[in-house]
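Retro notes - structure team

What went well: the batch runner handled both jobs without manual restarts.
What didn't: labels got mixed up in the shared folder, which is why I'm recording both outputs here explicitly, each with its sequence directly above its tokens.

Job 1
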Amino acid sequence: MTDDVRNLVLGVIAAGISAALGWIARTYLWRRKLRRKQAFFGLPGNSECLLVVNRDAGGDGAVHRHDVFALLELSALIKDCSAHAQILSHDVTQQGFGERTEFCVGGPVSNRRMAAHLHSLLPGVKVNTDPEPGPDRGAFQIGSERYRVEKGVAEYVVLARLTAGQDTRPVFLFCGQQAITNQAASRYLARNYEKLSRKHGTNTFCLLLKVVNSRAYGPDVVELVADVTRAAQTPAPAPRTSHRAAS
């Protein structure tokens, strides 16, 4: 074998080894990223999860189109984790939480299960459900702060990841003042889950997001107002009752 042939063979072998090492490295990084994503969402491969959808109060029992878009955003995340989703209406979901990951979409007026989750898991979050028009209709009360709806200008949504224990699957809440805010929160989660995973790991968190000028920008412009985990998990103090001494 001449030196030229030997050098050519060695070059081909070196290129093959480099390509194989590169493929192994890329595969390792992809699998590590997938495992982190699966751990954050509580969705190991081939697992089952729930998508709990609300009903549009003004749409004769139909699902609002923005909530449908939110479900599509979440379905893509679930598929990326190699998991499977079961879609259920809020009024037929009669089971506990923790066995399967759950994504619950909608406010407490149109989603009974969301109302139950807020009462049990986030007692510090109060939503004004008064059907009569007024400045506080649909407003959030979190701790001592109140967040009113300015439709199409400034609307708020609670995005939460909640767990009942270390070995239980999480519940994700998308509780918005308008249907478009539910879509905005699901899109925010899809875009920022890596950052949220690095910051919170697999722990509970509750974020308040603000959707800015949805009339012009739709669900795309979202600001993080605050991490309200502590306030949301702290029950609001009971109102004081004054007692007058009998005369």
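Job 2
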Amino acid sequence: MRQYSADLTPPWKKPKAVPEVAAEPGLVVEEPGTGFCGAVIRCEAGTVTLEDRFGKHRVFPLEPRGFLLEGRPVTLVRPSTGPVRPTRTASGSVAVPGARARVARAGRIYVEGRHDAELVEKVWGDDLRVEGVVVEYLGGVDDLPAIVGEFAPGPDARLGVLVDHLVPGTKEWRIAESVTSDHALVVGHPYIDIWEAVKPSALGIRAWPKVPRGQDWKTGVCRALGWPENTGAVWQAILGRVGSYKDLEPELLGRVEELIDFVTAPA
């Protein structure tokens, strides 16, 4: 008598098939069990090594449905050919394999807000190191006149500044205008908070919710989406879902690229 294997699992309970993705160097994935997010730097028999934005390495087994790519489960597999170097950085620029960080330029980019600075580092960090551009944290626009005065920008030391939600006619706008010159450029993105610069699709939400005026925006967003009200932890989760420039809105991309071009332009 022919033997049949019985599978009594209802169809709706069977795991859905997920795509297999070659674990090529530079591919950014997340290991859901630990929340560790990083780029592939090495893939060996049965394991893959990831490096996060702080340079920390973790080794994980190559298991079915073991990773998230842009928020979706995938099965990482060993590349079929030899090691493939990434051809693009997270910002979309052409990668320079083996390039060392350039000696820092005199020029600088200041970014208002810690979350803003972390996002710039994650997406443009490779480009900035190759160009020798240092990013500094700006606590608030009120500090800008003193910073510009002390920095004394000139032809060989240009200063670029990225600020939040720069609206014409406001106090912040007037301060930005007062320090702008041929060697100092201040630009602003249109978002109330840098969180909004991350595309909703990267986070698995339909849209960023509208928060009533007068309410803390981040807290209001967390409440509307049912997220924990620990905004620091939520931001780290958001940042972990950003794999490249493709996860960001073009209005932010344009401003950051403008600043990089400005501070690296020949004297």
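One thing worth noting from job 2: Helices lie at 114-131, 144-151, 171-179, 200-203, 217-225, 231-240, 250-264.
We'll revisit the folder naming next retro.
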